[in-house]
Amino acid sequence: MAKIALFANGPVGAKVAQHLLASGDEISLLYLHPEAKRKSAGEIIANAQAKQVISWTDAYSEENIAALKAADIDFIITVYWAYLLKDEICSLAKDSLNFHPALLPINRGWYPHVHSILDGSALGVTLHQLAAEADTGDVWVQKEIFAEDIDTAGSIYAKLQDEIYQLFEENWSKIRDGQISPTAQDHSQANYHSIHEIKDLDLIELDKTYSGRELINLLKARTFGSRSFAYYLNEQGEKIYLHLSLSKE
């Protein structure tokens, strides 16, 4: 059994909480995003059965740091967690594991699947240790994922969520029990995308020349289910959104 401090958001976070308890582990502390940014919070709380639930806004209070220290945590696990953890928290656990939906060191940072669609870089999922800089920690396990021609950002995102959870499910007990040793990333092969880059992709310039491949990939990258982010401006300056639908013959 391991004592866990779980930092979780979204449906993958809920599934991870459930798997940890099924594996005989204890979620001593559960951390949630600020209320406005929480996803699947009710399910995460129900699945985790944590001794203490803490909002990220209060994580560094003296009381909560003392609670983390007293819990004698074996692993900090961060699942689709949007915030870097300071050493003040990380140093209080024996080890750590973070979920990143990319084939690190490729596409560190935000929206890695979008950038893979645009530049053709490999898709994948990685479980790695936490480090001071985002997505730079040693790799526990990873897996390359392949997209189909009809995939868009939305369908690839869903595939990556499924694949990264399966990777965790298959390897968690081996990581916990010391049967897997983490491997350092090749930092010379790394690239990083900030959260702000995504907004620069959305405007389709009507007088700009695109190849067919460039335009299709751009629309793929900015189509998320029924929602579209790519747009052009009409003569009145209104945004006209473009939604890409793909199917095989």
Structure overview:
With 249 residues, this protein is α/β, with parallel strands linked by helices. The protein folds into two domains: 3-193, 3-Layer(aba) Sandwich (Rossmann fold); 197-241, no CATH class. It has seven helices and 13 strands. It has helices spanning 10-22, 41-48, 62-71, 87-90, 112-119, 153-176, 212-221, and strands spanning 3-8, 26-32, 52-55, 73-79, 93-100, 108-109, 123-128, 139-145, 192-193, 223-224, 227-228, 231-233, 239-241. The chain has a seven-stranded mixed β-sheet with strand order 3-2-1-4-5-7-8, sandwiched between helices. Strand 12 and strand 13 form a beta hairpin. Helix 1 runs parallel beside helix 2. The longest helix has 24 residues, at 153-176. The protein is elongated and about 60 Å long. The N and C termini lie far apart (51 Å).
- By CATH reckoning, the class of the largest domain would read Alpha Beta
Q: Radius of gyration in whole Å, from Cα? A: 20 Å
CATH fold type of the largest domain: Rossmann fold
Count of separate structural domains: 2
The global form is elongated
Strand and helix order: EHEHEHEHEEHEEHEHEEEE
Strand content: 15-25%
Helix segment tally: 7
The share of residues in helices is 25-40%
Reconstruct the topology from this structure:
Blueprint: E1 3-8, H1 10-22, E2 26-32, H2 41-48, E3 52-55, H3 62-71, E4 73-79, H4 87-90, E5 93-100, E6 108-109, H5 112-119, E7 123-128, E8 139-145, H6 153-176, E9 192-193, H7 212-221, E10 223-224, E11 227-228, E12 231-233, E13 239-241
Parallel strand pairs: 1-2, 1-4, 2-3, 4-5, 6-9
Antiparallel strand pairs: 5-7, 7-8, 10-11, 12-13
